[in-house]
Structures are given as structure tokens and as C-alpha cells.
Amino acid sequence: MTATIDPRTADVLPTGLLIAGDSVTDSSGGTHDHIYPATGIANATIALAGDTEVDRAVTAGREAQREWMSLPIGRRRDIMFDLADAVHDNIDELGRLSIHDFAVPLRTAPGHAMLAESFIRYYAGHVDKAHGETSQVSGKLDLNIVEREPYGVVGVIAPWNGPMVVVGMSVAPALAAGNAVILKPSELSPFSALRFGEICVEAGLPRGLVNVLPAAAEGSRALVAHPGVGKIHFTGGGTTAREVLITAAANLTPVATELGGKSANIIFADADLDQAAILAAWQGPLGQSGQSCACGSRILVQSAVYDEFMQRFLAVLAAAKIGDPFDTDVMVGPVISESSMTRILGVIDDAARNQDGTLVTGGQRVNGELADGYYLEPTVFADVDNKSALAQHETFGPVVSVMRFDDDDQAIALANDTDYGLNAYVQTMNLPRAHRIARALQSGSVWVNRNSDISPQGPYGGFKKSGTGRSGGVEGLYEFQQVKNTRIGL
Q: Residue 255's pLDDT is what?
């Protein structure tokens, strides 16, 4: 394997698989030249897992999981707190590795590791509070015990746009529930996940309790199909989710999914329009260049303030600096790859050709000194038809649709008129309206007067085609436990 060191940060990029605490560079899945999206140049060659490495990781996970569950419960709790402390101590490094991963700007990259730390710390507090229950049984004096137990070895498949976020939201509760984890980051963003695996060993977790296997399609299928994997937690797109579900069905392996979205951001006339413009910009085309399942890509604005909102919204976009992700002033980085850039430009061209709306800003690749990277201008279409492909299909890029509504009922109807239901956003200063609209929206999460600030106390997941699982809260812990009922005749 080869890796380069960025002279600005002196970061050494991890390139081997992590199995049983050891770096594995000679793998059956071959290698992948990782392209840094900001330059279009390879910054490392990484190993990819195949069938052999998946099998080794499952074996290591089984052994480590037995060791993990044999520890006193207070010891497991304390080790997870140690892991949270270790992540905290390495936040700067993990943030920089996230930049090397997928060119998320420096001003937000450390937040991914901070989120992971908060989830690990939260679920560490649940380790010694896994209470079961008893209940009476009709017509009997039996002792009826209900307990929750781990699956054993679980597979966590992370998307390229947030491996450290998935570490917090999926790996942390899986460990707290008593499982071993095989974390499969995308080959497009492996570095921060691999470093996290090393930190797990450094923090005192049994070697093999967390194995990290970057993999392409072959290795991913091997993980999902392995009979030794008790459950799969998948975060990603609907097309890949269907393949995961079909593959898992051969062994009847349960699968939890957190999928995409086409989230509505409803801005009422009584909203704080300056705040609404900033939130719409950040939660729309600016944050991670729109490459987020939480992207509020459908902005619904009440007709009475439509023009005023658009003026403020476009001003916020114009002020956002696009450029080198290592520059602390940069807010907008590139999209993940050349193929994604080409696809997104195709969506923009199709929308313009089909007159789905009026292009009011953006729509082009950024040239000049950024021409070698995969940079796109933040793009806004106004007066979009909600039935159009632009409004209905997830773009996963810096492209948003703006449309008008007149009253509450129309806003609700437009917001719910989609196959997705992951997030919804409501901007209003009217508290009764906020409650009424939130209850009517078909969405797993509703954010009123704020962005999608995920926290470990709140369950996060989707309705409809946005997934079936939950991450966060006690619901996220239950995703990684199976229920056992024991009845003792007295």
C-alpha cells in the first residue's frame, strides 16, 4: 500500500483493513486508488476486503464478542467511556481525516467526530442500565421474564458522506448492546473509520470487537451474505438497500435501514426570514454541498413572503465561500467524485430542458483554480413543479427547488407529496401552528426553526422509502438487541 502525507497537516492516511486489531494490506478484494475530490488526484491506495477478509473478521468478532460479554458490566461501561475520551483526544485528527476522506470543509469536519463522541458517551451510560422486565401470565403463577440480548456480530455499512457519524449512531449502540461490529466504510471515504478502529484497540476494547473493512461491491455482498452476521445496519441509498435486503434474505438476516430523503423546508410568512434564509441555505445546497440525506432540497415558501425570502436566501448563497476544504473560511467543498458531478450536472440540464422550474443561480461547474476538483455552484430553481423529477428524485448535490404555497393545508399536501419521509423543516413563530404542522407531516424527524442537529437522545430515522430503523435514543439501542422471553413454572 502507498500513502502520501499532506504537508499542511502531516497526516498519515491509514490504508490497510483492520482485523482483530491488526492492519491487513494483502487482501483478496484487491485495492482502490482513493481520489481526493478537491483535486481529482489520488491521495492513497487502500486495501479492499473480499470473502476471505470478511470471514476472518467474523471469526475475530465472535471471539471478541464472547470476551466482551464475559467482562463485568461495569467494566464494559468504563471501557466505552474510555473510548469516548479517546475519540475526544483525537477529534482534530479524525476531523482532518474526514477532509481527506471526502473533502468536507474544515469548519465542519471535526463536528463529525464530536457527534461520534457524544453518541459513544451516551450509550456508555446505557451499558449498565439494560433492565429487563417481568409480567404475570394469564391463568398461571409462572415467572415470566423478558430480556434483551445482543445479536453477536453485526455488520454496519456506512455511506461515504459521514463514516464518523455512523460510528456514533450505529457502532456505539451496537457495542453498548453487547455486540461485536464489522464496520464497512465506503472505499470513497475509509480513513477516519480505519483510524477509529485503531482508537478502539488503544482504548482497551477487545481486539476484534470492532473490525473495519473498506470494501467495494464484492466485499459488501460477502458481509451481508455471511451466515455468522446476526444483523445488518445499512445507511445509504434506496437502490443499494434493495440489493442488501435481497442478499440478506438468503439467510433471513434482519436489516435496519436509514435511507435517503427529499425533505421539505416549509417557510411561513410569520417566520424570522433572516434566520430562515440562513437555515435554508445551510440545510440545502451549502452543507456538505447538498450531499446529505437530511438535505432540505424542497423549499416551500408562503406566497406573501416568497420574493422577500428569495432575495435574502440568494444573498446568503452568494456570500458562501467555495474552495479548498482545508481553508478555515471555506463553507462549500466539492462533490464526492467526477461521476457524481457529471450526474448532478445532468439533473440540472434535464430540469432546465423540461422546464421543471426557473434556474435563478448556479448550475455550472466551478472553474479557475478549482477546475481540477469536483466543484459545483450552489444551484437554485424557483417556481418548481412539485410533480417534476427535480422535486421528486433525490439529487444528492447542491441543488434545491423552491416553490410557493398559500395556506397550511397546501403546505402540508406539498410536503407530504413524496415517496420519502426522513426529515421535514418548519419555520414559523406561531407555536400552535408548529405543533399542528409537525403532527401532520409524514416524516421521521421534524425540525422547527433549526437545522437537523442530531443528538444521541433523539431517535433518528425515516418514514416511507426513507428507511425502517432508528438511530439514537433507547430506540437506537434496541435496534441491536433481540428479545428473549423466559418462563419458569412455579
A: 98
Which pLDDT tens digit goes with each residue over 433-458? 999 999 999 999 999 999 999 999 99
| Cell of residue 29, nine digits | 478484494
User: What is the identity of the amino acid at 247?
Assistant: T
Residues 17-259+467-488, CATH architecture: 3-Layer(aba) Sandwich (3.40)
Whole-number pLDDT of residue 9: 56
**Domain segments of the chain: what residues?**
17-259+467-488, 264-455
133 has catalytic annotation: no
Do the domains 264-455 and 17-259+467-488 match in fold? Answer: no
Q: Put residue 20 in one of left, alpha, beta given phi > 0 → left and psi -120 to 50 → alpha.
A: left
Check if 377 is active-site. no
What residues in the chain have per-residue pLDDT under 50?
A: 1-7
Please say whether the dihedral angle defined by the alpha carbons of residues 424, 430, 433 and 434, taken in this order, is positive or negative.
positive
Return the axis-axis angle of helices 73-89 and 191-202, rounded to nearest 10°: 130
Any idea of the CA torsion for 269, 462, 379, 429, to the nearest 10 degrees? 20
pTM for the model stands at 0.95
* 22-24/31-36 β-pairing: unpaired
In the set 258, 377, 394, 479, the catalytic residue is 258
Q: Is residue 386 within 8 Å of residue 411, measured between CB atoms?
A: no
Task: State which fold the 264-455 domain adopts.
Answer: Aldehyde Dehydrogenase; Chain A, domain 2 (3.40.309)
User: Residue 475's pLDDT is what?
Assistant: 96
Task: Report pLDDT for 11.
Answer: 79
Please give the Cα distance from 334 to 343 (Å, whole number): 14
* Nearest-angstrom CA–CA distance, 169 and 445: 15
* Marked catalytic residue, from 117, 200, 293, 377: 293
